[in-house]
Specification:
alpha/beta, Aminopeptidase, 8-stranded mixed beta sheet, 35% helix
Length: 449
């Protein structure tokens, strides 16, 4: 029992840390560029150190150009008495991200062209951006919009700057020995939206910290950057290295109250997909399976024709699928640190599956080896039927199962992942048994990748 109790305590500890981070980072106004992103990355890097880097505005990256840096100090719509009706300081979603500065008084009829609401979800403030078209605007709940006095003249004020500066991103490369490298990416450009994608950047950091503690077989490139332009600029800057990436994950929307989901890589049955399926199966967790779709996140760029990196995404309440997506209702009441930790464990399991995916060759290929004289066969006959025997006997029986599958399938070609799929046995159990069989000189590793 002890390992389970300590594991539970560990999960509780991580949950507390995740909760603190969610609360600390939620109010910060993030965008493609600017001090909000810098502050967020600095805060995250206290938990797991990574390099914070800058790419200057104006840098051409393939078909795109890094935009001017956007910063905002204040913004509001006030009535003629000076009362702030819509206030950026109360909720940063109130301002269209990348709004140009403005200071003007105008009639409602003119102002309404710059107001964005969501009649279908009347209490929610929508999330809107205008990164590449110089514009300005305010977002507010439809309820508030309806109550605005149509005869009033409104004061509109946005204290923002759009100036040459830079785009900030974070990077950390963990080196393994196999020569194979995977990408773990998250986007950090969303303002006060909890599931999409504050939850993702917190999970990304927890995962980085966890993998830093381990001796790794593969390399993992952790990238945290603004969506689209961040991914594209990173690809441009690291073209050679990115061309060699074997696959990866885009971490987003991981702490909602809804179902777990998995968006497949563009290949659908890549190693990444298989490692994820086994993570769900072996942890006994159900999930909604989403086929690849070009609409989504940065997989469009990482998997573009030149790079073709298969990228998968494990979600809890997938983006697009939940009603509060890209609205002010995707807040800290919507997400739970506990859900975030559950998804964290799934990502970790998927990565562990990649780590454990070794190929073995049987050193007794002519027939099944005699297990009894090696002490590998259950000491008493007669209970090798599923469901029979004491827990200890059951363990021996399932280990016998694992031994038989491993000795049968290990032809130097079939990976452990394939054996786990074929046998229905947990990959971790197979791995542990295979370690034992190596000590008994019954198996040897043929393929270290
Ligand atoms: Zn989004």
């Amino acid at each position: 029992m002890t390992p389970d109790i300590s594991k539970e305590m560990l999960d509780k500890e991580i949950e507390k840390e995740a909760d603190v981070l969610l609360h600390t980072l939620f109010p910060i106004c993030r965008s493609l560029t600017g001090d909000g992103v810098r502050k967020t990355l600095r805060e995250l890097s206290k938990m797991a150190n990574f390099a914070i880097k800058e790419i200057p505005s104006g840098t051409v990256c393939y078909d795109w150009t890094v935009p001017p840096e956007w910063n905002i100090r204040d913004a509001y719509i006030a009535d003629s008495k000076g009362k702030r009706l819509v206030d950026f300081k109360k909720n940063n979603l109130h301002v269209v991200s990348y709004s140009a500065p403005i200071s003007k008084t105008m009639a409602f009829d003119e102002l309404k062209k710059y107001l964005y609401t969501l009649p279908a979800l009347p209490q929610a403030i929508p999330y809107r951006t205008s990164y590449y078209k110089k514009d300005w605007g305010f977002c507010l709940s439809y309820e508030q919009y309806k109550m605005m006095d149509r005869q009033e003249r409104y004061r509109v004020y946005i204290a923002s700057t759009l100036e040459p500066g830079s785009m900030t991103y974070g990077e950390c490369i963990l080196r393994g020995t196999s020569g194979k490298e995977f990408l773990v990416s998250a986007y950090c450009c969303h303002p006060s939206l909890a599931n999409d994608n504050l939850s993702g950047i917190v999970l990304w950091t927890l995962l980085l910290r966890e993998l830093k503690k381990r001796k790794l077989r593969h390399s993992y490139r952790f990238l945290i950057a603004p969506e689209t332009i961040g991914a594209i600029a990173y690809l441009r800057k690291n073209e050679k290295a990115m061309k060699k990436i074997a696959g990866g994950f885009i971490i987003t929307s991981v702490a909602g109250p809804g179902k777990f989901g998995y968006k497949h890589t563009f290949l659908g049955d890549h190693l990444i997909d298989r490692a994820v399926h086994l993570a769900f199966r072996d942890r006994g967790v159900d999930y909604v399976s989403y086929p690849f779709d070009v609409a989504g996140s940065d997989e469009r760029h990482f998997s573009a024709p030149y790079f073709r990196i298969p990228m998968g995404t494990i979600c809890k309440d997938k983006y697009y699928e939940y009603d509060y997506y890209h609205t002010s209702l995707d807040d800290l009441r919507f997400v739970r640190a506990r859900y975030l930790v559950e998804t964290f464990q799934l990502y970790l399991s998927a990565i562990e599956n990649l780590e454990m995916n070794v190929t073995y060759k049987s050193l007794s290929p002519y027939s099944e080896p005699q297990l009894g004289r090696r002490g590998l066969y259950p000491p008493l006959g007669g209970f090798q039927k599923t469901g029979a025997g004491t827990p200890r006997e059951q363990k021996i029986v399932s280990e016998l199962d694992a031994i038989r599958w491993l000795m049968f399938m290990s032809d130097g070609e079939t990976s452990l992942l394939a054996i786990a799929e074929r046998s229905g046995l947990p990959l971790r159990d197979l791995y542990q048994t295979a370690e034992k069989l190596q000590k008994h000189k019954l198996l040897k590793i043929t393929n270290k990748t």
